[in-house]
Amino acid sequence: MRIVVVHDGFFEGVISFHRGDGWLQPLRLKADEIPLHLEAFVAQASCPSGCRLRFATTSRSVALDVEPDTAEGVRRFDLTTDEALLATADLPPGAGRVRFDGLPDGWKTLEIWLPPQRAVRIRALGVEDGADLEPSPDRRPRWVTYGSSITHCNGAHSPSRTWPAVAARRRGMNLTSLGYSGQCHLDPLVAMMIRDRAADFVSLKVGINMVGGSVSPRTFRPLLVGMVRIIREKHPTTPLAVVSPILSPPREGTPGATGMTLRMMREELETAVARLRACGDANVHYISGLD
Looking at the whole model, is its pTM more than 0.90? Predict the structure, then answer.
């Protein structure tokens, strides 16, 4: 098998990288801003939910070499082409290669989706001797989505079956998934990161992580308005959806530490979008999580 060292051009859905001796670790935050973030946020942003390698090849077998990880539990990788999930491969603790065999003849564009649960250091791709392989940049419309664990999707059956990955593959979109388990708190640095990212569509699914006490009736709506306005600095007319929390019975009417409930949050988000639209932002839209 011929080994091909990977570089930045092989990746999609990645904000930046840690770089080591022969490996790249995809990140979902700016590496030079790590000291500015809380450690809990950095831990979730280091998990490559939605990150993938995208390439074209003539090989009928493809391998991915990664740094071995001795933590408990398998790491699961998916191989897809367009909407189709071709194969899922599990990497046990201590192993460093996943392999996909029996691929179609001729040129095809493939994506290897990385596990969302913990960091992965990528070393190389492998193809059959004599086969061609090259990066295949994703030219499809770019979708950037922000959210909580419901967007991060640690519990998905496999990496390409998180809900953002499923939606992106079905709709033919180039996904950047900024779902951070427990860490969706309308951080201004995240707003600036979305602002600086190429995007044809942006969605912000917010609320559930904050109902426990990180915002109050005084701060929640202004923080959402501020995030939208920061994004608008470079995306003045990009379609932007604000999505309220899905159903969570224990939190619907029971106030958190600062008095917020999910019902209040939905009302505040809907009001914020209505007022943004009244102030001239015709391409911001509210979607109720209950729908």
Answer: yes
